[in-house]
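Hi all, posting the design record for the shared folder.

TITLE: backbone redesign
STEP: 1 of 1
STRUCTURE INPUT:
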């Protein structure tokens, strides 16, 4: 049979002799879906950078992202469909449902499987909940939710549930507790009555000088408390030197496992942070401020929404415009350039540097990026003086440090302590000692990326610069205490699984390296030379800090906990899979994504891949 003119390869495509397609190309917009999208968006702007906000509207309203709505949203926002899909599929809190697939159950329970929760029995809890909660509820794994001191933790819908047990979770679901409860905090009136916003007022009326404020911060030695520790005064000065218009982005992503200090400050004294933020915006003359808050903190979102509105209504922010942006479940968006991408409505892929955000940041403009806690300290330091801050400290170090302590201690929580305190002093003086029945064996001095040290090295002052000689970092000062009951091989594996899940997948050393490392670490005996080679490549060639630091737990376990490496028999995965989902085999199961669902309809092959690699149109 001769080929039809349409498929006849002898006819040149550009000759004009071929028939056009007999049906429209691409996915067509369903008018009903378009009407639904328009009704939800109402008069909201259709700007590109609002894509993630609009996806949240759909996800919250329909409980998922139906393919027909994504097509309609792309049409409504004048975006290519692929752009909408690649963003929607990058973030863990969005559920894409293709045509003909049933939506996920209305309630999702995300069980934290990061280290402090795993120490508190999260794996068993997850397995028990899968059995107890039945088909109407979807139970999935999730990364650290900032409640490590009250482990195990999970989220029921949008409600954070701490000290979780099967019974209290079942009861909470039966009572419909799926929305965040907002804690008591210092409101605008009380904050102002106690002297709050006087400093900002003085700045705005010209009684304070920008240069003078930057100098105070420089003398105080305040360093970025998001983890990298860049001197704050110097950063403000660098941004100020760049041409206007300048912008500001506040990092409230707080995803480092073990860290919950920003949450604490937002939940207790949000205006101290907001005043610091508004002073910073005044100092660098930022015309717009974007506050990026992780989706796991909906109670903080509610606080910030109401308090930012109150601040604006009181006329305290005449010099800048404040935008609140909601993350969507991606640890990598805490890396500042990935955060900027996410604020622009894109996937959180870290940018190559230079140029640095201070030069080319948000929307291409010079941008000041600061962590919530860094800004929280601005008012106190300026009002009380740099000497007040430097007068604190211990063991030769200066300043104050907010430690998030969890794991095997009697009294975990947020501990405001002198910079330079040692882990032993922190545990004994601030945390009531090691938990009953446990013997101190080791600790993470700086969250998942900061490495692991043995108890014999618990007398090192904890501060920026003191841990580097040991191959560790203080980072966001998340201290996780480990005991004789903890297997360091399993601890390191838990941390590597986190990095594997959270790698954005953009560069090969990190994408392939974390997956390979997890596979090697689930073997009865670690292949040390291969792991060391991987460590070298990943730290030398990864684009951002995630890949560069991911192998720290492995390096330190090999150095300090060799006896634990001799014990074989780590389970392929801490969370046993139900029989129906076991087909991935042990090697893949180790990297299986956190969005795995219970129902057969969601038991699709792509869900068995690490989360970020599920993204449509991914790079690398
Ligand atoms: C993988 C990765 C994750 C990060 N996560 C956070 C975070 O959750 N919050 C944060 O403030 N900084 C985080 N940082 C550090 C930021 O990139 C940046 O240094 C910081 O927001 C700057 O503010 P600061 O100088 O006030 O600390 C992360 C860095 C990396 C490499
Ligand atoms: S190092 Fe990892 S997280 Fe960072 S850009 Fe590369 S793949 Fe992404
Ligand atoms: S909330 Fe589970 S480890 Fe942080």
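Okay, here is what came back for every position:
SEQUENCE:
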């Amino acid at each position: 049979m001769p080929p039809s003119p349409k498929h006849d390869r002898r006819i040149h495509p550009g000759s004009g002799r071929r028939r056009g397609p007999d049906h429209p190309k691409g996915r067509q917009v369903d008018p009903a879906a378009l009407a639904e999208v328009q009704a939800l968006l109402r008069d909201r702007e259709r700007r590109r950078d609002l894509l993630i906000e609009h996806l949240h509207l759909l996800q919250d309203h329909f409980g998922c992202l139906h393919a027909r709505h994504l097509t309609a949203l792309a049409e409504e926002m004048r975006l290519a469909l692929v752009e909408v899909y690649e963003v929607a599929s990058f973030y863990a809190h969005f559920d894409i449902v293709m045509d003909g697939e049933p939506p996920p159950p209305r309630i999702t329970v995300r069980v934290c499987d990061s280290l402090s929760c795993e120490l508190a029995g999260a794996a068993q809890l997850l397995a028990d909940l899968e059995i107890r909660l039945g088909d109407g509820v979807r139970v999935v794994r999730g990364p650290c939710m900032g409640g490590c001191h009250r482990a195990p933790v999970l989220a029921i819908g949008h409600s954070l549930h701490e000290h979780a047990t099967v019974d209290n979770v079942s009861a909470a679901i039966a009572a419909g507790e799926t929305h965040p409860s907002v804690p008591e905090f210092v409101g605008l009136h009380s904050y102002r009555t106690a002297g709050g916003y006087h400093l900002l007022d003085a700045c705005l009326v010209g009684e304070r000088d920008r240069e003078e404020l930057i100098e105070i911060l420089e003398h105080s030695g305040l360093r970025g408390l998001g983890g990298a520790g860049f001197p704050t005064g110097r950063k403000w000065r660098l941004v100020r030197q760049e041409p206007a218009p300048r912008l500001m982005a506040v990092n409230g992503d707080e995803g480092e496992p073990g860290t919950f200090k920003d949450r604490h400050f937002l939940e207790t004294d949000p205006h101290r942070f907001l005043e610091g933020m508004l002073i910073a915006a005044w100092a660098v003359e930022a015309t717009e401020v974007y506050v990026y808050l992780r989706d796991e903190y909906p109670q903080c979102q509610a606080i910030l929404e109401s308090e930012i509105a109150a601040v604006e209504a009181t006329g305290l922010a005449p010099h800048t415009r404040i935008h609140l942006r909601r993350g969507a479940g991606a640890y990598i968006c805490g890396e500042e350039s990935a955060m900027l991408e996410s604020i622009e409505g894109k996937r959180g892929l870290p940018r190559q540097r230079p140029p640095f955000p201070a030069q080319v940041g948000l929307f291409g403009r010079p941008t000041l990026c600061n962590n919530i806690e860094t800004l929280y300290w601005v008012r106190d330091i300026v009002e009380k003086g740099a000497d007040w801050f430097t007068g604190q400290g211990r063991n030769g170090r200066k300043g104050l440090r907010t430690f998030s302590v969890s794991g095997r201690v009697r009294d975990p929580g947020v501990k405001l302590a002198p910079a330079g305190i040692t882990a032993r002093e922190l545990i004994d003086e601030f945390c009531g000692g090691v938990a009953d029945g446990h013997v101190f064996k080791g600790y993470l001095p700086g969250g998942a990326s900061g490495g692991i040290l043995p108890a014999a090295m618990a007398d090192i002052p904890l501060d920026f610069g003191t841990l580097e000689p040991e191959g560790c970092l203080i980072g966001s000062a998340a201290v996780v205490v480990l005991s004789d009951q903890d297997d360091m091989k399993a601890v390191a594996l838990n941390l590597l699984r986190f990095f594997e899940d959270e790698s954005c997948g953009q560069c090969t050393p990190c994408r392939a390296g974390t997956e390979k490392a997890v596979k090697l670490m689930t073997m009865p005996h670690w292949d040390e030379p291969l792991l060391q080679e991987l460590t070298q490549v990943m730290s030398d060639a990864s684009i951002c800090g995630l890949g560069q630091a991911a192998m720290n737990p492995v390096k330190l376990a090999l150095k300090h906990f060799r006896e634990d490496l001799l014990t074989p028999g780590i389970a392929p995965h801490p969370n046993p899979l139900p029989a129906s989902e076991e087909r991935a085999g042990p090697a893949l199961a180790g990297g299986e994504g956190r969005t795995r669902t219970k129902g057969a309809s969601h038991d699709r092959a792509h869900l068995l891949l690490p989360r970020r690699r599920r993204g449509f149109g991914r790079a690398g």
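COMMENT: Residues 224-228, 230, 251, 253-256, 332, 334-336, 369-371, 374, 544-546 surround flavin mononucleotide (ligand 1) (CB under 6 Å).
Let me know if anyone wants the other runs.
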